[in-house]
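Quick one: co-fold with magnesium ion.
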Amino acid sequence: MSERIVTMINAEQIAARVKELGAEIAREYKDRNLVLIVVLKGSFVFAADLARAVDIPLRVDFLGVRSYGEGTETSGVVQITQDLSRPIAGEDVVIVEDIVDTGLTIAHLMDLFRTRAPRSVKVCALLHKPARAKVAVKVDYLGFTIDDKFVVGYGLDFAEKHRNLPFIGVVERT
Ligand code: IMP
Ligand code: MG
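Sure, here it is.
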């Protein structure tokens, strides 16, 4: 069995949308204490581009999370593999996620962060698959809404593969 990756969103489309998201965030957080919290590992590519598109002072921190085994179905259990390096009390948090699928990860992170008394918490996700929602989550800054397909590339993996693709694609087995 061989694998073929079909492009869903190309690098130019991603770059254009990320610039828009960055400009929007920069406008809204101009006089605030912005901290981008990057949800690892999937968001590392998106966050690197997004941070450079937000042209105001900000802080970046990382949170390691694991919600999947080796498969393509979420286990529903969100495991923190690496915590933030500093407190977020009084700061304006934007969680940077690669994709909101069932919504379980974001819902869990919102609950977790709220216990740490930030001034505000919003969500910026590159992708959203509303067809698979199990809990309602509000995505404040959204790149693209996509169909119920398992996607890879631009940081997203399938069993740790394909994170380095410069575009978003769908794995097809032939
Ligand atoms: P949720 O908790 O179901 O919303 O899933 C969130 C996490 O699952 C994302 O941050 C991704 O890391 C992963 N995920 C969900 N859908 C996909 C996909 O289509 N491709 C790769 N990873 C995915
Ligand atoms: Mg993720």
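If it helps, The mean pLDDT is 94.
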